Amino acid sequence: DAGVTQSPTHLIKTRGQQVTLRCSPKSGHDTVSWYQQALGQGPQFIFQYYEEEERQRGNFPDRFSGHQFPNYSSELNVNALLLGDSALYLCASSLGSRGSGDEQFFGPGTRLTVL
Amino acid sequence: AQSVTQPDIHITVSEGASLELRCNYSYGATPYLFWYVQSPGQGLQLLLKYFSGDTLVQGIKGFEAEFKRSQSSFNLRKPSVHWSDAAEYFCAVGVRGYQKVTFGTGTKLQVIP
User: Fold this and answer.
1) How far apart (Å, rounded) are the C-alpha atoms in residues B22 and B107?
2) Are B83 and B111 in contact (CB under 8 A)?
3) Which of A79, A28, A70 is nearest to A52 (CA)?
4) Is A80 left (phi over 0), alpha (psi -120 to 50) or beta?
């Protein structure tokens, strides 16, 4: 079992650009959550996808959007990048039937640097 | 809205000494509570979780945590720390029926010989 995988590992973009990050959940999981972890901070919930729909969203602007595919993999898109978007982006997968009570398995993250 | 406070940003302990990391949460009802560990360059690994029942929860790597409703706390403990325990530890709270999990700001643990 490969666990949760994320790509790319690192990414450098400039302000105003757009970026797409990808996540493949742990085998058997149907739910993907995305978190932003700024340097020295805890992860902050961006949104969660279940059955190809956004099920809940944290306090992030519409520049952050996502998608879930029929195979449960997911993408996080960020438009009009700002310097403040520089962070480690974590994907977590779980079984979606029990809300936040499900154990979430985290991927290693994608380090995004915006210049 | 739920929130989590980890009052200690950085803790240093000697190898073999006991460890307690503090976590306080704010939520009106009984929450789901978690402790995660993050090593440099790694994702988060779940150490233990509390949903209901016995308030003393055993986790992996010899860690345990105790849920104290009266103090709104969920402190993490280990009787004897190993050098490999050096990492950052995050307490998190979830709400029944909702998807969002809220993390604290983390406590960085340094282990000295």
Assistant:
1) 9
2) yes
3) A70
4) left
Are A91 and A4 spatial neighbours (Cβ–Cβ below 8 Å)? yes
Residues of A in contact with B10 (CB under 8 A): none
Q: A89 CA to chain B: closest CA distance, Å?
A: 10
Lookup: tokens for A64: 């952050």
Contact (Cβ atoms closer than 8 angstroms) between residue B39 and residue B85: no
A8 touches chain B (CB under 8 A): no
Using CA atoms, how far apart are residues A58 and B50, in angstroms rounded to an integer? 23
DSSP state of A16: T
Closest of B103, B93, B104, B94 to residue B9, by C-alpha = B104
Of B98, B100, B103, the CB nearest to A42: B103
Asked if A44's CB is within 8 angstroms of B98's CB, the reply is no
The single-letter DSSP state of residue B1 is -
Mutation for testing the B interface, residue in A100, A104, A105, A106 having most B CBs under 10 Å: A100
* pLDDT for residue A100: 58
The pLDDT tens digits for A83-113 are: 999 999 999 998 876 555 667 889 999 999 9
* pLDDT tens profile B59-93: 999 999 999 999 999 999 999 999 999 999 999 99
Instruction: Collect all residues of chain A within an 8 Å Cβ-Cβ radius of residue B103.
Output: 35, 42-44
